[in-house]
Amino acid sequence: MTDKTSGTHGAVVQDSAPGQDGLLVELRGAGKSYGNVRALHGVDLKVHAGQVTCVLGDNGAGKSTLIKIISGLHQHTEGEFLVDGTAVRFSTPREALDRGIATVYQDLATVPLMPVWRNFFLGSEMTRGPWPVRRLDIPRMKATADQELRNMGIVLDDLEQPIGTLSGGQRQCVAIARAVYFGARVLILDEPTAALGVKQSGVVLKYIAAARDRGLGVIFITHNPHHAYMVGDHFSVLRLGTLELSADRSEVSLEELTNHMAGGAELAALKHELAQVRGVDTEELPEEDDLTAPVAPSPEGTT
Amino acid sequence: MSMAQQAEPAMTTPPGSGPKQTDGRTVRRPLALRLLARPEVGVFLGAAAVLVFFLIAAPSVRQGGSMATILYQSSTIGIMALPVALLMIGGEFDLSAGVAVISSALTASMLSYQLTLNVWTGVIVALAVSLAIGFFNGWMVVRTGLPSFLITLGTFLILQGVNLAVTKWVTGNVATDDISDMDGFDQAKKIFASSFDVAGVEVKITVVWWLVFAALATWVLLRTKYGNWIFAVGGDKESARAVGVPVTFTKISLFMLVGFGAWFVGMHNLFSFNTVQSGEGVGQELIYIAAAVIGGCLLTGGYGSAIGPVFGAFMFGMVNQGIVFAGWNPDWFKAFLGVMLLGAVLINLWVQRTATRR
Q1: Three-state secondary-structure class, residue A129
Q2: Which of B243, B247, B248, B350 to mutate to probe the A interface, most A CBs <10 Å?
Q3: Helical H segments across A80-224, by residue range
């Protein structure tokens, strides 16, 4: 990140001032039901500018539902969702984008057969000319895309190549660069390191830190506590649709985080049952007392 | 022939650490290879080959009049193949396109004749009906999420039945009455079905319309936001929606564009033959789809061009007429088409695989 300052002059930056102490997005007791299935319930989450909020959880813990609410793909059915201190309810991802909330999805929301520059500007194309002959400003889009990607350290020979020909890490970075360029204040990253190797994961983590340093609020969804702990300022662990842990970096160690991820409290309870079964070594498993981090108040006691 | 250049994983260079980050890590491909990567180049070569073949095999093709006939035949397919191709790039297809042409012509004809109106009233109402059919198709596909194959198969059967039943009920016949002596007919015929003279050869106006529409479609597809959206909704609908592309609007408007094409060809049929046979049009939808696929459009969406189907339609017209001019048994026509279609599909498959190779 040598010259990242030349980058952000997004086209759709909203000038709405963040709430007090840089609080950008807040969920209060938010939840979501699909018919009679309660996917998410009573979740509190705060996203501050210049901080990385990690959301951890096993498969089916409700991480995806949480992102979909914040990014406008789904609406919450209970609780409150506030952006800059005012309650909102997005009906399309477009509305979330207009408020500066950008999501980089697991599948990266790119269209594989389209060229890199078209993908970069998809949905927010630059145009010139009056209406009947309003057309894409291709030279400007290509130049901008090239500049923004170089700022992220990606140099491509040919922006015309289909984005499907790039490697997973490259596409991830194109998606992040796109979100940053379009004036994201809140960046939601859905499992950005899940499909990557160790080295590429490192690069993506670097971008997360870089985005944070630019003053973006980052929501980092992952099920890897090691990756989360490297960049996170606040950690929320989801479990079966409810918040199991919500702690600042100062309040929790990597070990505790890993234990919570692995189902810490439940595991401790299970330990006593397992102890009665011959052949199961429970010595290494944590006791409930070991989990010192503050456990989020669970409204209906799932834990 | 590696059409998609092998993108070197530039990812291994962490941000800022590369002292000299320049272009040129990959060799620029030769012009010929880059050209072959375009969706319309394969079909262009195919069309040229067919043309040369018949120029040699059937000497009468070399006359201007024969070429005008071939172009006319191509244009009636080509005008419909264009919106069908755009729809296909947008990830859907429309089996009702063939009978929708007849529905439009029947509407204009019967409305004008039965109510003794100026034919332009019938023409305008037919446009509204065609756009409504397109809207219905698009709306159903978007709302239900069912494959457009099923929805438009339904519309296809409905229209086929309605065309026959309503025509018989209104006129007591399977064809509509001759409207050639009605108000506005000559005016409308000028626009939809006239012909003009080029160096002693009579050329139908539809050839001009075909090329104008093709130019317009190419410009829209490659140079406008809407064109970008067409590629996006066909390539990956969910991704497109996630980055703010109005997927519903794009899909429905594409179906309505097919409606517009059906109206235009329907009007051409009406004003060149004065009457409409209510049972026609069945099977034409497959010809349109085949022309689009031969023209380099991917059946699964997200890839293709508007100029490719122009050559695709030309191949159809050329083969269709060329067999007649060469004095061969025209029964072979469909077999010929089948071989062309299979060849085009294989080339498309190869292009898609190469283009998405990591």
Answers
A1: coil
A2: B243
A3: 93-98, 116-121, 138-151, 168-181, 198-213
The C-alpha of B14 sits at a distance from chain A's nearest C-alpha, in angstroms, of 6
pLDDT > 60? residue A29:
yes
Collect all residues with Cβ–Cβ distance below 8 Å to B258 and sequence separation of at least 6: B80, B83, B84, B87, B94, B97, B100, B134, B137
Let me know if residue A296 belongs to a domain. Answer: no
Q: Is the pTM of this model over 0.90?
A: no
B13 within domain boundaries: no
Q: How many domains does chain B have?
A: 1
B:336-355 residues touching chain A, CB 8 A cutoff: 352, 355
Segment (H or E) for A28: strand A23-34
In a domain, B344, yes or no: yes
Terminal alpha carbon distance of chain B: 16
Per CB-CB distance under 8 Å, the chain B contacts of A166 are 7, 358
Q: How many helices (H) and strands (E) does chain A have?
A: 9, 12
- Work out the mean pLDDT of chain B and round it to a whole number: 85
* ipTM of predicted assembly, 2 dp: 0.77
Total number of residues shown for chain B: 358
pLDDT given for residue B327 in this prediction: 86
Q: Is the Cβ pair B11, A94 closer than 8 Å?
A: no
Chain B residues inside the 8 Å CB shell of A122: 228, 232, 240, 243, 245
| Residue B11 within any structural domain of the chain | no
Burial of B353 (0-12, 13-18, 19+ CB in 10 A): exposed
Among candidates B5, B11, B14 on the partner chain, residue whose Cβ is nearest the Cβ of A161: B5
Higher-confidence residue of B29 and B288: namely: B288
Assigned domain for B17 exists: no
Instruction: Classify residue A202: in a domain, yes or no.
Output: yes
Residues 91-150 of B with CB under 8 A from A: none
- CA angle centred on A284, ends A279 and A287, rounded to 5°: 110
The range of the structural domain enclosing residue A160 comes to: 4-251
| Predicted confidence (pLDDT) per residue in B33-45, tens digit | 566 667 777 788 8
Pairing assessment for the beta strands A217-222 and A52-57 based on DSSP bridges: parallel
Whether A99 contacts A88, CB under 8 Å: yes
Which residue among A111, A124, A167 sits closest to B11, beta carbon to beta carbon?
A167
**Which has more confidence, B82 or B43?**
B82
Structural domain that includes position B62:
49-350
Between positions 76 and 105 of A, the ones with CB within 8 A of B are: 92-94, 97, 103, 105
In a domain, A116, yes or no: yes
Nearest chain A CA: its distance from B240 CA (Å): 7
We report the CATH number of the domain holding residue B115 as 1.10.3470
Domain count for chain A, please give it. Answer: 1
Residue B59 to chain A, least CA–CA distance (Å): 43
